[in-house]
Design goal:
Elements: E1 2-10, E2 13-20, H1 30-37, E3 47-52, E4 59-65, H2 75-87, E5 95-99, E6 102-108, E7 114-117, E8 125-126, E9 131-134, E10 138-143, H3 152-160, E11 171-179, E12 182-189, E13 194-196, H4 200-208, E14 216-224, E15 227-237, E16 240-248, E17 251-259
Parallel strand pairs: 2-3, 4-5, 10-11, 12-14
Antiparallel strand pairs: 1-2, 1-17, 3-4, 5-6, 6-7, 7-16, 8-9, 9-10, 11-12, 12-13, 14-15, 15-16
């Protein structure tokens, strides 16, 4: 069968999208999704998404990791799916959609920037040398003096497959503070099992832990290997964050057909 697909990217975090809104997208097996995301034998992507109908919402986001398994929330994926929905004719001043972690709102600015509202945070697990925080997906966050020198693939894999996290997996972020307002983040993503050029939920997690105002409104600029993002939020205290918005580009790359 031939499958029509669309390719989008958000700061280098790239996705294959299937339209399950205006027509029924084919039901794919785990191996078929894995093949589509393979960068040598398929289209190549960090994940695959479906734009689907859902009563009471503008659409539903269904997300699969590059390993073919349905996964938790993907921030950059959500932003790309909003832009795809717009390109497919779903035009809203404020979008409301449902994902695996619950409801999200999003808007598209005049310059094409997509801003996605993330879930509020009510718990942060602080340790001496790292922090665990779930921003729709679980994240291990470690601050370092020179993030460019970190072997993200090797060190990230070691942490992700350690006895503590091997069963369910965890995303691993290495964060360098550039100045009061800016951080540099590199992320090892579970499901991709490698470093990605950007990770929206990882950027969000890292930004929350980099708040420059003790409490109240914060905005953090985030550099990633794939480009720049911005996270705005209200810090209530060290364990509570609300009104979290992940903002950045979401770009159509190309469309095509693949024979499965």
């Amino acid at each position: 069968m031939k499958i029509e697909f669309y390719k989008y990217q958000g700061t280098g975090n790239d996705f294959v999208i299937l339209d399950n809104y205006y027509a029924d997208a084919p039901v794919l097996t785990t191996n078929q999704i894995k093949l589509i995301c393979d960068r040598h034998f398929g289209i190549g992507a960090d994940g695959l998404m479906l734009l689907s109908k859902k009563a009471g919402y503008d659409f539903e986001m269904i997300y699969y990791n590059a390993d073919g398994n349905e996964s938790s929330m993907c921030g950059n994926g959500g932003r790309c799916l909003v832009k795809f929905a717009y390109h497919r004719g779903i035009h809203k001043s404020m979008y409301k959609f449902i994902a695996t972690d619950g409801e999200h709102e999003a808007e598209i600015d005049s310059d094409g920037t997509v801003s996605l509202k993330m879930q509020a945070i009510n718990k942060v697990d602080y340790h001496i040398h790292h922090t665990i925080i779930n921003t729709g997906s679980p994240h291990f966050v470690k601050f370092t003096d020179n993030v460019e020198q970190v072997d993200v693939e090797a060190t990230g894999r070691e942490i992700r497959y350690s006895n503590t996290f091997a069963a369910e997996g965890i995303n691993v972020n290495f964060v360098e503070t550039i100045n009061e307002d800016t951080i540099f983040v590199r992320t090892y993503e579970r499901g991709v099992e490698n470093e990605t050029l950007s990770c929206g939920t990882g950027v969000t997690a890292s930004a929350l832990l980099s708040a420059h105002n003790q409490n109240g409104f914060n905005t953090v600029n985030v550099k990633t290997p794939g480009g720049n993002l911005n996270v705005e939020f209200d810090k209530i205290d060290d364990d509570h964050f609300e009104n979290i918005w992940l903002c950045g580009p979401a770009v159509f790359v190309f469309k095509g057909e693949i024979e499965m």
